[in-house]
Amino acid sequence: MSSNPNHEQVRRLAFYATPVHACSYLPLRQARTLFADPQAKLDMRTYATLIRYGFRRSGSHIYRPSCPDCEACVPIRLPVKTFRPNRSQRRTWRRNQDLNVIETPAEFDDEQYRLYRRYMSARHAGGSMDEGNESQYLDFLTSRWSDTVFVEFRHRRQLMAVAVIDRLECGLSAVYTFFDPDQRSRGLGSFAILWQIEHCRKLELPHLYLGYWIDECGKMAYKTAFRPYQLFREGQWHDV
């Protein structure tokens, strides 16, 4: 890390590792997670430093996988200036130009929550993510210190998708996206990423952070469809 004051603050942070537990993504794998001290005074400048080193936010917690004998979870980000959409992404962009985009505060909204529940029931039925109540929903997506916005995508008055985004000095972080499971032909998940790329460009921010990519996890394959991208390995971001 460089010698700027915020890096010094990060150096003073304590980090704690969880006990080894079953991996949520890969069967028969063991996982462990490294958390920044949850009692520390966290802010977006601290998070902006840590996200450059492969950390992510879940609720108020900043974490990074720290698994024994496994490095499958790889941080991925998009350098937005050099991104070029492929043919499928261009079609998805054109297909959704009839949507209105509205930024809303990161707080509870019943219509958004009902869409979230429908999405979870369709995409994660029976899993732990399909069991959350209203409080757990907000605890997962928001935090007391983050600069977070819920971006709505609407067709006329119908809510089609919501992208939850953190705004940092080094880019935007795609926290989570949920959408109407009956609108699969629109490619709303991909469109939300395309919109965030364009929004980064308008704000003159260099990167869109997409969280973790796992080569063996099919649900994450969409992330490497956005090219070029960068992977964080051995302490550095590498162009792919």
Briefly say what this structure is.
With 240 residues, this protein is an alpha+beta fold. It has helices spanning 5-11, 44-51, 87-95, 110-123, 134-141, 188-203, and strands at residues 15-17, 21-22, 30-31, 33-36, 56-58, 61-65, 74-79, 100-105, 148-155, 158-168, 171-179, 207-213, 230-233, 236-239.
* Helix-strand topology string: HEEEEHEEEHEHHEEEHEEE
Q: Output mean pLDDT.
A: 93
Q: What is the name of the CATH superfamily of the largest domain?
A: Gcn5-related N-acetyltransferase (GNAT)
Task: Characterize the largest beta sheet: strand count, sense, and whether it forms a barrel.
Answer: 8 strands, mixed
Question: Care to count the β-strands?
Answer: 14
- Oligomer type: single chain
The N- and C-terminal alpha carbons lie at a distance of 23 Å
Q: What structural category characterises the helix and strand content?
A: alpha+beta
Helix content: 25-40%
Write down the Rg.
18 Å
How many domains make up the coordinates? 2
- Order of strands side by side in the largest beta sheet? 8-9-10-11-12-7-13-14
What is the name of the CATH class of the largest domain? Alpha Beta
